[in-house]
Amino acid sequence: MDVSQYLEIFIDESNEHLQNLSDQLMVLEKEPDNSDTINEIFRAAHSLKGMAGTMGYKRMQNLTHDMENVFSEVRNGNMSVNSELVDVLFQCLDALETYVSNVQQNQDEGTDDNEPIIKALNAFIASEGKTQESSGKDEHASDAHPTAPDIDYNGIVLTDFEKNAVNEAFKKNLHTYKIRVTVEENCILKAARAFLVFKNLEGHCEVIKSEPSVQDIEDEKFDFDFSLVVISGESFGEITKIIKSVSEIKDAVGEEIKTPFAEEAHAEHHDEIKDEKKADKDSKEVAVADKKPAPVSSPKQAVTQGKTKPVGHTVRVDIEKLDVLMNLVSELIIAKNGLVSASSLEDGGAPVNQTFNEQIEYLERVTTNLHESVMKVRMMPIESVVSKFPRMIRDLSKKLNKKMELYMSGEDTELDRTVIDEIGDPLMHLLRNSADHGLESAEVRKERGKNEVGSIFLDAYQDGNNVAIEVRDDGNGIDVERVRSKAIEKGTITEEQAASMSDKDIVDLLFKPSFSTAEKITDVSGRGVGLDVVRSKIETLGGDIEVKTTYGEGSTFIIRLPLTLAIIQALMVKVGDEKFAISLGSIQTIEDINVNEIKYVHAKEVIHLRGSVIPLIRLRDLLDVPGEPLEQENITVVIVSKGDKLAGLVVDSLIGQMEIVIKSLGKYININKMISGATILGDGSVALIIDANTLV
Question: Taking a C-beta distance cutoff of 8 angstroms, is the pair 481, 552 a contact?
Answer without folding.
Answer: no
